Amino acid sequence: MIHRLPVRVYYEDTDLAGIVYYANYLKFIERGRSEWVREMGIDQAAMKAAGEGVFAVARVEADYIKPAKYDDVLSVETRISSTSAARVVFGQTVWRDAVKLFHAEVTVVLMDDTGRPKRLPKVLKLQASLAE
To answer: Does residue 15 carry a catalytic annotation?
Structure first.
């Protein structure tokens, strides 16, 4: 499943040169992953409250390809690249129309209250198997 999230670039997202500040791409893709997880029916706040764990980013590998600018409408595309018992790797791309601006591979783990890894929810494993 590919999830797409529209994002508009606001003045606050840009730097002195008028382009999107590099760290803001990480915010954009975080929103994309959060909405993807929500659409899978996973309530992260309820998981945490029930002691079922929290998701945490363990690794990001990012490529900045072309700049986005003020008032651009972007699309954050999120898909599962791979999974294991306790981690999921998301492939995330930011587009402006048909122009690829940014791509990242983001490794996310599920952790318990002590910071130890936990097994992923079944719905994420199901989505990963459908993606392969």
So the answer is: yes
